[in-house]
Amino acid sequence: MAFGVGAIVNFGKELFAAADNLEKLHDKTGISVDGLQRFQVAGDEAGNTIDDITNAITKMEDKLSGGDASAAGALKKLGLSFEDLKGLTPENQFIAISDALRKIQDPAEQVNIAIDLFGKAGANVLPTLKRGFDDLKGAAVLFVAAILQVTLLSQIDVFHGAPDLVLVTLVCVALLRGTIYGAAAGFGAGLVVDTATLQTLGVTSLLLTIAGYWIGRYGETTGRDRTHAPFVSIAVVTLLYAIGSLAFHYLLGDPAPARDVLWSTLFQGIALNLILTWPVYTLARVVLRPPVPRDRVGRIHAVG
């Protein structure tokens, strides 16, 4: 129990430190905290730091404000212009350029355009630009999973066990998107489930937030490209989620039948979740495209 409390405290400290760093970066760059969070999620996945991205945006602003000829030419190739971008915030300018750049088919041309717009930093942040910022797709997938869970799957009983589509989907999304997105997605999905099922508001959100953060960390470090990672993650998280849920309900004075949770239903739940893992992870990879390998971009740049 002491280990669990210590882990939660450390988790909270990391979240507060991350929020403080983003607030300071907002003060320095003028980019909104929401925008910085989106950039950090995309950059973590693509192999760029938030500093890489903000430095590139600063360089872009210098080129745009100075009417740089090479930048104007690059915008023309993207179907954009200075006038199109003038009324946008720097973060939305960056996103608009990313959306247009992803439509360019020639990798070498993508590199040239990025360098014309962002200087040398363009080649560095190209993986993030090509990755894009369509994370609302992940939120939509989790929302659909939550609705299916509370309306259909909660009625399933297989040898006294039931699958948890929300947990499986969250793990798959967090593996692909990282800590910040995993934590935020877990909180949102948990809130939907708690509201729809009229359970104690916040318990599911807290547990899924922690699960999304930890699995996101695993994905960022060693797990994302390993075939067994989704299955290992699902098995471990299903076990820890059951124990965590039991502990929180006990502390809140709710009924917490440990024997039923840990013996009568747990192993069936793990097995059913593992059955769902591969199709859900495959769908998540289609919806949330994996990042462009940085070494590939480097090779393209060298050839160009």
Structural overview:
There is one protein chain. The chain is built from 15 helices and no strands. By secondary structure, it is mostly helical. It has two domains: 2-133 and 291-303, no CATH class; 136-287, Arp2/3 complex 21 kDa subunit ARPC3. Helix 10 packs across helix 13 (229-251). The radius of gyration is 22 Å and the shape is elongated.
| Parts with pLDDT < 50 across at least 5 consecutive residues | 290-304
Number of domains: 2
Rough outline: elongated
CATH architecture of the largest domain: Orthogonal Bundle
Biggest beta-sheet profile? none
The assigned structural class equals: mainly alpha
Radius of gyration: 22 Å
What's the N-to-C terminus distance? 56 Å
Number of helices: 15
Give the ordered list of helices and strands.
HHHHHHHHHHHHHHH
Beta-strand percentage range: under 5%
Number of strands: 0
Give the proportion of residues in helices: over 70%
The CATH topology of the largest domain, please?
A: Arp2/3 complex 21 kDa subunit ARPC3
CATH class of the largest domain: Mainly Alpha
The pLDDT mean sits at: 80
